[in-house]
Amino acid sequence: MKRIIFLSLSMMAILIVACNQMHEKKGSSKISSPSSFVTEEGFIDAHGVLIYYKALGVGQPLVVLHGGPGASHDYFLPYLLPLIRSNRVIFIDERGSGRSQKLENSATYTVGNMVEDVEAVRQGLELGKISLLGHSCGGVLAQAYALKYQENLSHLILCSTFHSTKKMNEVFKRMKEKMTPELRTRIEKMEKTGLFGHGKEYEKNRYTSEYMNAAWGEGYFPYLYQNHPDPNYDPISGGNMSWDLYREMWGSNGEFIIDGNMLSVEYTDQLQSIKVPTLITVGDHDECDPSLSQEMHEKIAGSTLVVLPKSGHMTFVDQPSLFLSAVDKFLHPVK
Does the active-site annotation cover 47? Predict the structure, then answer.
């Protein structure tokens, strides 16, 4: 049976109080000492590519995949840290991203190759069956992993992601149509003249600051945050990522069209083959429109869909308690 949950703010308050009371009852008979969590980090040699990992916590393994493409695991911290109390959380930086090895041949930055990197991490750390959480483009990777290595999964968590590049591009088209005419004209003018090769030598292989501010700061912002915008958010700092990977996978023609090798991401007809317990989360104002999550929910039998209120793409920043409670209840249901 499919389950879909729309969480109101009042339900969130009740859920948080209930969770607090449950923890208080568990610890009422004995005063426990503060817990200490040791960080383990290192590299797994994934068929010649060094993949960075950071592991924290205790319990069943939960592997976390970041988005971008070309970002790193850092944006999850500190928001996902509470999960380490009941899971061994393993963050990785995907090939070419963060602390992982960068590759000379950008054509090797593909979803298929990254699937094999995730499997190499699972084997290298001797994790056995894992829960897999992917956010944004990391959710695309998580789906691809599930479609190939489902037998290695105990749980699948897809957060603010998409299953079809064609449909995601339709979302971007609607997003542009909703912009003010001035902003849309400004963005399209920069896109038509080409987004790379401008400025000083060190600036030529990335977006201009003007485009980052317009696309990420003005165009995307309403779809990134709603309830609790990160006061440290800076569109320019978002440009600190793996640009060769980004251009290979996303494309070079701007934020509002995916025309790189991620054009191959069309999983609609394959999702029904996923039988592992699946949680899908999305913000009600998400950049990855909730309609995409609804369709994934309909295709994956028995999946649970949680729509987070007053949330953009960064649901774990907008509604951290709601997000963490949804993940915790899914991974550790009360019997």
Answer: no
CA dihedral 250→251→255→258, nearest 10 degrees, is: -60
Q: Which of 117, 286, 289, 318 is catalytic?
A: 286
- Predicted TM-score (pTM) of the model is 0.90
For residue 316, which of 131, 109, 136 has the smallest C-alpha distance? 136
State the catalytic residue, choosing from 73, 135, 285, 313: 313
Phi, psi of 53 (to 5 degrees): -135, 155
Answer whether 100's CB lies under 8 Å from 51's CB: yes
**pLDDT tens track for 287-300:** 999 999 999 999 99
- Print the domain residue range for 190: 166-262
Residue type, 170: E
**Does 136 qualify as catalytic in the annotation?**
yes
**pLDDT grade, residue 31 (50/70/90)?**
low
Q: For residues 40, 69, 47 and 119, what is the CA-based torsion angle, rounded to 10 degrees?
A: 70
Asked if the structure places residue 314 within a domain, the reply is yes
Spot the catalytic one: 97, 100, 131, 136.
136
Active site annotation includes 286: yes
Tell whether 92 and 199 lie within a shared domain.
Answer: no
Specify the number of domains making up the chain: 2
Task: Point out the domain boundary residue: 262, 294, 309.
Answer: 262
Rama region for 205: left / alpha / beta (φ>0; ψ in -120 to 50; rest): alpha
Please give the single-letter amino acid code of residue 267: Y
